[in-house]
Amino acid sequence: MTTVKIDIKTMGATTHPDDRVVMHAPEVRARIGGGLVSTAPLEVPLVDGVATLENVEPGPMLIRFECLGIADTMEKLGIVPDSGVWTLDEIISGKLTWTPPVVSEGLQKIIDQMNLALDSVGSAVEGEMGGLIRSAESAAQTSAMYSETSAIFSNSANVRATIAETAASNAVARVDALEAVSGLGPSTPVDGQTASLVLQSDSLTRSALDGAVTAHTGMYPVESYGAVGDGVADDTVAIQAAIDAATSAGGGTIFFRPGAMYLVKTLNVSEGITLSGYGSKLLRPANTPNWVRTITNQNRAYVGPKDSEKMIIIRGLTVDGNLANQGAYENYELQQSMLLQFQGDPTQPGRVRVLLEDVTTNNCVSDGVHVWRNVDITIRNHRANDCFRGGLVASGGHSIIRVEGYRGGGTIRGAHIDIEIDSAGYGGSLRTDIYLTDAVELTRAKFTDNFDGKAGAIIRLDRCVLLSGVVWVLGSEEKGFADLQVKNSTLHTYATLYGNSIINPQGAIFENVKLYGHHVDGATERRVINIRPNNLGKSPTKSSIKFINCDLMVAEPGGSSQWIGYAREAADNLSHTMEIIGGNITTAFRGVQLPSGHAVIGGGVKIDAPTPIFVNNDGARPQYTVLGDIKFGATATQEFFTYGSGAQSTIEHSGTVVDVAVNNSIGTQTGWGGQIYRGRRTLLVDAPPTATTTGIRGDIARLKTPVAGAAYEWICTTSGSTNAAWKVLTTIPT
Question: Taking the domains of the chain in order of start, what are their residue ranges?
Answer without folding.
Answer: 2-91, 266-468
